[in-house]
Amino acid sequence: MNRSAGVLLAIPSLPSKYGIGCFSKEAYDFVDWLVEAKQTYWQILPVGPTVWGQAADSPYQAYSAFAGNPYLIDLEPFVKAGLLKAKEIPNMDSEDGRVDYDKLHDHRIALLHKVYERSHISENEKYQKFIQDNAWWLNDYALFMALHIFFKDEEWTTWPEDIRKRWQYSVDYYNTELYFDVEFQKFIQFTFFEQWTALKSYANEKGIKIVGDMPIYVSLDSADVWAHPELFQITEENTLAAVAGCPPDDFSETGQVWGNPLYKWDYHRSTNYEWWISRIWMSFQLFDVLRIDHFRGLDEYFSIPAGAKTGLEGHWEAGPNMDLFIKMEERIGKQDLIAEDLGFMTDSVKKLVKDSGFPNMKVLQFAFDLNDWAKTNDYLPHNYNENCVAYTGTHDNDTSLGWFTSLSKKEQKLVLDYLGKEKVDDIAWEMIRLVYQSHAKIAIVPMQDFLGLDSKSRMNLPATTTGNWGWRMAKKANTKALAKKIAKLADIYGRVNWSAK
What average pLDDT does this structure show over 430-453? Predict the structure, then answer.
């Protein structure tokens, strides 16, 4: 990885028709804009099919660790091909310009079903090859989603025992009874991968690399847990023994209970981490670089008793550590990974990051804590080494403007003293400059900071379940003037994308 820079922008946050950013013309335009801004990376959030109604459609709660989100499929090609009429598409935009996931849930899948019915997809050779090549995960996922709709979106743990426990006669029965619903789910995935592959290829041809994001945990209500309960800490009756979360931290005084099932690491070890390696391999079919969320959970993970309301009752247990990555390299070779090592860092976590050799994350907003101020703070830019990725903030942080505005006068002075200024007109740009001029090999900035937006444009507030993940960039907000300004900064600090065409 050469000295370079990138932009963090979730695909749903792009402007586009029909209520959500997707693989549309606006996505291709954004790639062109990144080239003008002399950027190398486009970092996105997870692209899995989000669990409806759970944590407001968080990309970190998905129905599958392998499948793609149908909401990201562009509808325009179907209109042009005559498979969908423009007048059939209802207005899915919200009044405030944010993503309205309820509207998408009510309309998007129904529209894709119309396309499926009119497409004669079974006659498509590329489709047949796709479903054969991906049968190892696609068959379970497609049946799971067909069942999910059949059982009116009830969590799989509430389904009748025969299909909940996947008795073979029941699996055979539902595969026959719901045949066309299962095939429809396969069609959705074929379409997702076709459109995404085209967009990624376009980006790569332009010299832009995609940084994907892999949640460490999967959702309880997922095809992965339903099809492979042996991989998780789940009882024979499909109830959770313990759940994932984190202890008290800067985001929450009582910790967080995420509710995801924990892994049975002894079982994974006995299979040489086959499922995990398949997951990482699949991620690199989609992305050029992969950020592993909550990387520290692979050293030690926080286990909270099922039913607990806070993280105060949890405790740490040992994870797979370097054993996973040794086996991964043996199977699929070295990969470009980023370790999201934020949060409480023990010596063993630091050792795992060092032993792995993966660049870790430095978030500038974490550097200015009046209660823990020290010039040796790892998040202060003058302490960064080269093997890291520097951010002004992440999807879990406030925007730089919102963050600075919320600080006390003493904390604001701390920031200004570090900047060597008595006041600033644009704190977001000052923060951007700090990460650009640091030693970090890569600097990545959320699009909201480049646009100088306040807290109303925050992506996520951890430990809350409503009002998140809905922000969208205004049409034509990424102007040529802004690209030129960013490109100049990239020139000054040697972060130019020399491979861009």
Answer: 98
